[in-house]
Every structure is written in C-alpha cells, then in structure tokens.
Amino acid sequence: MRAYPAHARRVASARMEPRLLAAVLPPPGHLRTAAYATLANTVGTGLWAAGAAIYLTRSAGLSVAAVGAGLSVAALVGLTASVPLGHLADRRDPRALRAALQLAQAVVGLAFLLVDSLATFLVVAVLESLLTVGNLAVRAALVAVVAGPEGRVHAFAALRAVANVGIGVGAALAAFALAADTSTGYRLLVAGNAVTYLVSAGLLMRLPAFPPPEAGAGARDQPARAALRAPRFLAVTGAAAAMGVHRVALKLIVPLWIAIRTDAPRTVISLVLVWHTVLSVLLAVRLGRGVRSPGAAARMTRRGGLLIAAGLLGYAATAGLGVPATIVLLLGATTVHTIGDLWHGNGSTGLAYELAPPTAVGQYQGAFLLLTGLTNAVGPALLTVSLLRPDSRWGWYALAATVAATGLAVPPLTRWAAAEAGRDHP
Questions:
Q1: What is the dihedral sign for C-alpha 170, 171, 174, 175?
Q2: 136-174 pLDDT, tens per residue?
Q3: Would you list the DSSP string of 40-77?
Q4: N or C: which terminal CB in the chain sees fewer CB atoms within 10 Å?
Q5: Rounded CA gap, 316 and 308, in Å?
C-alpha cells in the first residue's frame, strides 16, 4: 500500500503572496507545491480559453462553425482517456505521469501554431483533449496520495480555488493579445500557454515520488475497466454528475437570459460572472471541509442541489422586473447558486473518492470525469432549447425541480452503493 504523507507542513516564515492567492493557498508543504503547479497550469488555461477562438479564426483561418464543431468532436473523443489514464495513475507514480502528460501538452499546445486547415485542427484538438481529460484523472489520483484519505476533498477544494485564480490571471493576460489583435500577439498567446505546461511539470517534479503498490497489493488486481462495471458507483456518481448541468446554465444560459429576457444593461453579465468567480475563490476551501465518509459527501451534495435549485428559481424571477430589482436579484441568486455549486462540487468529488476502492482511486475518478463530461456535452443544446423560449420560466422551474430531486436521491443511492463497497456510510 502507498504511504499517505501529511498534505501540508506549516513553517514559521511565510512569503508574501498576492492577497487573493494568499487567501486560498495551502500551508507550505507538498500540497502548496501542487497548488503552484495548478496555478501555472491554469494560467495557461485562462490564456487559451480567452484567445483560442480568436486565434483559430483570425490567424489559423478557420471558420467559426469549423472551430465549434471541431472542439465539440475533440471534447467527446477526449472523454475516452479518463478511465485508462486514471487506471494507469493507480499503477504508476502519478506525479511523474502527470508531469509527462504536461510535457506532452506543451508540445501539442505549440502544434496549434501549425494549424492551417480543418484536418490539422482536428488532429491537434483531439490530441489536446485526450491529454487534458487524462490529466484530470491523473490529478485526482495525485491529490489523493498527496493529501491522504482524510484531506483529499479539502485539498481538491483548495486546488479548485487556486485554479479559479489562475484562469482569471490567464484571461487578463490574454486581453493584451486581444487588444493588439495581431498575428504575432496571438502566436505569443499560444506559446505562453505551452510555457505554462513546462513550468507546471517542473513544479510537479519537486514533489516526492509516489511509487505504486507492490504487485498483488490491490491496484494491480483491479481490472482496467472495473469502474465502468460498478453499477452502484455509476448510479451515485452519475446522479451527481447530472446535477452539474446547472454549471452550463450559469456560464451559457444566464448571460443570454440577461441579454434577452431582462432589461438589465449587458454590463451586468460581467458583474454576475465576476461575482461568481470571487465567491468561488473565497469560499471553496471553507465549504470543502468535513467530507470524510460517503454519507457526509452525499449530504453535502443534497444541500448543494437544494441551494442550486433556489438560485435557478431566482434567475427565473428576474424576467419583467425593473432594472435595480433585477440586478439585486441576479446577484442574490448567483450567491445562493455559487454556494450550492461549491457544496455540489465538493460533495460529488467526495463521493467519487469515498466509494472507490483505495487502490483504484484514479480509475474511479476517471469514470466520474467521463460522466461529468457527457453532462457537459449534452447540457448546452438541452438548456438553450428549454430555457430561452418565450415561455421559458417553466424550463427554469423544471430544471430547478430536477436538480433538487436528483440531489435528494443521492443519499439513498449512496447508502446502497456504500453497502456493496463495504464502506461505512455515516
């Protein structure tokens, strides 16, 4: 069995950090190192997310339709990497494996400079998606060995908060390339994204090695697709993943709703999204404590579902209100929704950890990522049709009811799954 080192060690002297980052960084130790690697990685994510579409259409010469279709195809193909690479992380050192994947991501990131047709774009985009999704499964396994069974959900919440900071920084840096609107600027953006992968890989290699268990100690006895043949695990995590459709509502539907169905100025869209990000950064760690059993994770997921439903009803109620009341209600609904989102995210992560065999954490997290990815793939088309029609209030009501009902179903499903897995439920 692997040893689980303490996830952090406090020291007497602390370095000066930017205030927002200091609020979410773990104490000095292995988890702090992992957090810096996450920060570097997600700065690149923010750079690429903000500038990818513009680079591919302006500099690479692709059409908007080709970019959209290509990214959708790549995202679906990429999901196939989650379980195999998660399984590999259970059998190899996840630190070295994740660093190797990030080196490969740097190479593939630079390959976007060679894109000059739909065919080359598809090849590069699919490779990028496979590496990105696989990397997420390996990261879950790495967090588990760095933080240990008692601290892994809390650690995951801390890294999620750091990731939000990194994405925000990357998006802000991308603004310079977008403002310059030159081919050179966009190419520098692509190169910058690749560099962040190299920095992240270097930071990861500062962690100690986490060798796999001895042969026959458990991990090597787990079939490569064991997680996909565990119906009770899939039922619980599938319900938790399906609840995640609400994130599509916030990032895609709420901005369109504000623009189409309310009288609020469009600048409120940015205000709502920034407020959500700030709350996510400041509250992620605080709301990630206490998940140390399947039952605790299930109850947190249920609380999250009920709050998310309340937030969705708040968004629906903004149609037809005056501008001041609309802004106040939008910010209030976003506050409630964000707290629910954090509870749901931490609870569902806890379920995927707590219901997995201790020696197959990577593979089972990979299965959870697969289910989450399928929800993200289906969500945009489903919600765009149901929530933006003239009578779309009923769509909001139906979505809120579905999320709440699914959340309420998670605890009994978890008891059922925990009994099969031989895990204590409380």
A1: negative
A2: 999 999 999 998 888 888 888 889 889 988 988 888 888
A3: HHHHHHHHHHHHHHHIIIIIS---HHHHHHHHHHHHHH
A4: C
A5: 13
Say which CATH topology domain 28-204 has.
Answer: Growth Hormone; Chain: A; (1.20.1250)
**Amino acid residing at 155:** A
Q: How far apart are CA 62 and CA 64, in angstroms?
A: 7
Average pLDDT of every residue of the chain: 87
Question: What region does 181 belong to: left with phi over 0, alpha with psi -120 to 50, or beta?
Answer: left
- Per-residue b or e along 242-275, where b marks 16 or more CB atoms closer than 10 Å to that residue's CB: bbbbbbbbbebbbbebbeebbebeeebbebbeee
pLDDT tens, 76-90?
A: 999 999 999 999 999
Q: Which CATH architecture has domain 222-421?
A: Up-down Bundle (1.20)
Q: Which tens digit of pLDDT belongs to each residue from 316-345?
A: 999 888 999 999 999 999 999 999 999 999
Q: Which residue ranges make up each domain of the chain?
A: 28-204, 222-421
Q: Which long-range contacts (CB under 8 A, 24 or more apart) does 315-318 make?
A: 315/249, 315/254, 315/257, 315/396, 316/393, 316/396, 316/397, 316/400, 318/257, 318/258, 318/261, 318/262, 318/264
Nearest Cα residue to 52 out of 189, 188, 257: 189
What tokens were used for 194? 């690749």
Which of 5-14, 43-52, 53-62 is the least confident region?
Answer: 5-14
18: left (phi over 0), alpha (psi -120 to 50) or beta: beta
Among 8-22, 222-236, 333-347, 373-387, the range scoring the smallest mean pLDDT is: 8-22
The stretch 363-374 carries a mean pLDDT of: 93
